[in-house]
Amino acid sequence: MEINWKEHFTYKDGKLYWTHTSPNGACQPGKLAGYLERHHNRWVVGLHGKAYKRARIVWEMHHGEIPSGCVIDHINRNREDDRIDNIRAVPVTLNNRNKTIDKRNSSGVPGVTYDAGRKRWAAYVNRDGKQVRLGRFPSLEEAAAARAAAANSLGYLEV
Q: What residues contact residue 51 under an 8 Å CB cut-off, 6+ apart?
């Protein structure tokens, strides 16, 4: 079922507001729509008994249906920031390139790990869903530079 979001919401600065009153009175014109899902740090809006990610609604209000195979990516990596200039529809592989640094990362640089056996820093990058080794380097700085150059050439966003 395709929903005409503009019948239900108005958009302002990344937020959605109700345009009508619901039968139970929970929705009032001008009232902020949705709630913050703390576990995922993103806004969700309930409509017709179903929950929708606010970022998807905002995108579709401005650009139409999200292309097949694409997901909504927050450019600044803040899933609470649904301003239209901060979200984009991208293929899943591109979205995965721009993840935040994993909490288990000890180097502080995405795609760079320390190889204790060789006493060198190893750099990796994901290309077309596969991990590609960029090499091993004597210093963290050299490994980070190699990773940054590769990431830049593949269209990753800066971390």
A: 44, 45
